[in-house]
Amino acid sequence: MITRDVVTGVAGVMLTAWVGTPTSAAEPAPAAFNNHCRTCHSVKEGDHRVGPSLHNIFGAKAGSSNYAAYSQGLKSSGLTWDEATLDKFIENPDQVIANNNMKPYKGIGDQGLRKEIVDYLKSQGSSP
Questions:
Q1: Which domains does the chain show, CATH number per domain?
Q2: 88-114: string of b/e by CB count within 10 Å (b at 16+)?
Q3: How many CB atoms lie within 10 A of CB 19?
Q4: How do residues 62-111 score in pLDDT, each as one tens digit?
Q5: Engineered SS bond to 89: which of 30, 35, 40, 96, CB 3.0-4.6 Å?
């Protein structure tokens, strides 16, 4: 015989499974990065792909990691990656650094998507 306590307990377990574990609003989701950047970049230290790892990019000098294929334009740009510089670069790399190696990437016009990417990169750490 099924009692009300058993039904209530099963319903509670099912509701918990359906609702899931809440995620922290302070933790940026990687979806925008994964959809627009991950083909060429990683946030894991030393995991260079077509483009360099973006591990600890905040506060880093452009072109300063051990990635071997930086363009001369990027290496000699003198830029330090911060929120504003990353936002502009993600929007239109050619306007920020001429002769970069971001081809065929043309940029992201959607400010909201750029902010998600920048927030995610920032959440992954900063250069000392």
A1: 28-123 (1.10.760.10)
A2: bbbbebeebbeebbbeebebbeeeebb
A3: 8
A4: 999 999 999 999 999 999 999 999 999 999 999 999 999 998 999 999 99
A5: 96
